[in-house]
Amino acid sequence: MKLSQSFTKTTKTAPADEVSQSAKYLLRAGYIYKEMAGVYDYLPLGMRTLEKIIQIIREEMNAIGGEELRMTSLQPKDVWEASNRWDDKVMDVWFKTKLNAGGELGLAPTHEEPLTHVMKSYISSYKDLPIYVYQFQTKFRNELRAKSGIMRTREFMMKDLYSFSKNREEHNEFYEKCADSYIKIFNRLGIGDSTFRTFASGGSFSKFSDEFQTICDAGEDIIYLDRERGIAVNEEVYTDDVLNDLGLDKSKLEQHKAAEVGNIFTLGYKYSDALDLCYNDEDGKRQKVFMGSYGIGPSRVMGVIAEKLSDDKGLVWPEEIAPYKYYVVGIGEQGEAEAAKLHDMAPEDIILDDRKSARTGEKFADADLMGIPYRVVISDKTLAENKVEIKNRQTGETKLLTLTEFASKIS
Ligand code: ATP
Ligand code: MG
């Protein structure tokens, strides 16, 4: 990517009403654009990072047998009436609208009901089960407070997987597999060491749900963490009874603010009952399908990572999700020519700062603000030794590599 040809520009200030550090940096660095409170566009840099997060999640969902689909954002009223969740008092985050042709519809806050309805066309026998389907899809929620940038928005990206199993045993097996897969995902995303499986309130079919909480000052939840065991308890279920139940020692628990990045839930028969989703078992008897749901918010994850890993100069992305790996600056005529050559060898990995309008100091500041993992400088001075200077954004460490060494790294 050549910065001279990109329409985005970095800015010195963020909108005055923006309070979270991650949102300020993401706005200033040109990753996102604020349409209104709780509603953001993803600009080219932001979109690349979001897509990389999505791709990691996708690979891990495929690895546990997930099949990807994409459902609609416009949802029919009747499937929601069947589960009694069309009512604004039951589901308080609805965005609804009217059809010109008559009737009402809803903008997807989640997909349990519509997907359960779809499955009625495809599940009839025990041979059809289990089924694991997931999507990356836009959700709409009329959140009362949207103040943490992309961590809580009114339109956001969700990965939602739903499991359809023959019984609780089959469900439990997948549930644990998915929990393990979430740990892998958060490791790959660079927040594994601060993200913990957390017991939270369940529903009528399980005592607890499992949240995945990342320790983060901008988070909205309080968790109690047993660091040795690597598990936590959400404040909402933090009672002596629950601690006993889980064998947790109160005196060993650390209290932290945290952000929920993922969430898995045993739904049981809640929706298969409401929408009458059944299968015939081996004896030809009609049975209800046992369901689960498994969410991750890629856009919230992006906000949490931006929040946690940034420093006083700007964003600091882990390599796996940075929009580009290298930020290349050429200084002097020969340096600029060499920089352009390197860019052309790996345009998918390199931002070439070839702006005529910016001074070198400004380019360096923008490289830091954007959080690109490696800043690469080629100047007359480094070229005199046939070298490039590489600076690690996270550690600040600087190294000299020969041009050939760097070229082989990127090709
Ligand atoms: P919260 O408790 O934070 O409101 P939730 O329990 O309603 O979230 P789910 O319905 O389980 O969330 O959604 C799955 C995931 O989607 C969450 O774990 C989170 O990562 C993400 N998410 C939920 N609401 C939002 C939002 N308003 N903005 C961005 N991401 C969200
Ligand atoms: Mg929650």
Give structural notes.
The protein has two domains: 3-309, BirA Bifunctional Protein, domain 2 (2-Layer Sandwich); 326-410, Anticodon-binding domain (Rossmann fold). Helix content is 30%, strand content 29%. The two termini are 16 Å apart. Strand 11 (221-226) and strand 12 (231-234) form a beta hairpin. It is built from twelve helices and 21 strands. It has helices spanning 21-28, 44-63, 77-82, 112-119, 168-188, 240-246, 270-274, 298-309, 332-345, 360-370, 380-384, 403-410, and strands spanning 32-36, 39-42, 67-68, 74-76, 95-98, 104-107, 131-140, 155-165, 195-201, 208-215, 221-226, 231-234, 254-268, 278-280, 286-288, 290-296, 326-330, 350-352, 374-378, 387-392, 398-402. The chain is an alpha+beta fold and 411 residues long. The strands form five sheets. Strands 9-10-13-11-12 form a five-stranded mixed β-barrel. It has a five-stranded mixed sheet with strand order 18-17-19-20-21. The structure holds adenosine-5'-triphosphate and magnesium ion. Residues 260, 263 line the site of magnesium ion (MG).
